[in-house]
Structures are given as C-alpha cells and as structure tokens.
Design a protein that fits this description.
Helix content is 47%, strand content 11%. With 215 residues, the chain is α/β, with parallel strands linked by helices. Strands 3-2-1-4-5 form a 5-stranded parallel β-sheet, sandwiched between helices.
Length: 215
Amino acid sequence: MKRAIPITTLFLDIGGVLLTDGWDHHARKRAATNFKLKLVEMEDRHHLTFDTYEEGKLTLEEYLGRVIFYQKRPFSRTQFRRFMFAQSKPYPKMIELVRRLKVRYGLKIAVVSNEARELNVYRIQKFKLDQFVDSFISSCFVHVRKPDADIFRLALDIAQAPARQVVYIENTPMFVRIAEGLGIRSILHTDYRSTCAKLASFGLQNDKGAIYETS
C-alpha cells in the first residue's frame, strides 16, 4: 500500500483567509463614502497605481499622493491612513486553527500574499501574525506578486519544502490553480468548516483537544 506523503508546510494568504482584505473595492467604496470622494475617479487612479505599490515600489505616501491627495482635500493624510488601516479585521477561528495545526503537526507556516508594505506590516503587528508565521513572502518584500508563479517558487525555496509536502490555503480561484500547477496541493477557502474538512483530507485534523501554543 502506497504511503501518503506527509504535509510539513502550510502556505497561507492573509486577506480573505486570516484577515479581511486590507484595501479591496469594498474598503475603497467605504472610504469614498466617508470622505466624499468620487469613487469612479478614485478606482481609476487606484488601478493604475496599486500593482506597483503592492510590489513595494511605491511608499504609502506616494500611493496616496497619486490616488487621493493629487488635489487639496478637507481631510488630512493621517485621517485617511487611519481609516485605511481600520478596515482590517481578523478571522479569529482561522487564526486559531493555524496555530493549533502548527503545534500539533510541527508545521512550517509561510504567508504568500499580495500586500503593500505599510499595510502588510501593520496587519502583521496588529494581529500578531508573526507569533505563528515563520516567513512572510509578501509581494512588497519580494517585489513579485500573484499571479506570477515565481512568488510560489520563491516561497518553496524560502520554506525549503518540496511542493508535494505543502498545502496552500487561498480564496482566489486563479491563484489556487497556479499553485496546483506547481504541484502544491491547494484549498480554495470559502469558509472555516469546509477548509477544516479539506485539511483533514490531507491528514491535518482540527483536533480542539490538541495542545495550544503558549504565547
């Protein structure tokens, strides 16, 4: 009987898996309403700029200068930044699930995420992701972003894990398919319960009786 290959490493997206998306269309729509901005114009400028920002080639101040503060506003950059960062909320059950699995199975945990530097750093620190994530292959740090398959190759190199021993949890279907094309078993995350069931099918049981991390 052929033995199943054990999973040693979890790759995770942040937005939509561990936390809400940091600065998606819904957050920008709320910002447009809150600050009385023209959403269509804001979206046009955002889409012309955001890929470069997520690749770590623009600072937050430069991004805001191009998208929001290219003209005088009745609010400050500080007010806007605070609103922007406040859109991030945690998914506690998913965070605790990853913590439990890491402890129970001795997994390496790596984030593979498209995020801009200042927002990424804020989210890591605010929600203490660095307490259980071993490495952050964030687009802003490595200057390549999904859907470029190179970000997954880089994650495999950094984690020093063969693709067949990795499970990737991601909420974007295209990125799941790209990872699978590299031999990484992947889960399209839609909700906590179905992700637990899929993890169990890979041999990673969500046993709430397992030892918790002490931190």
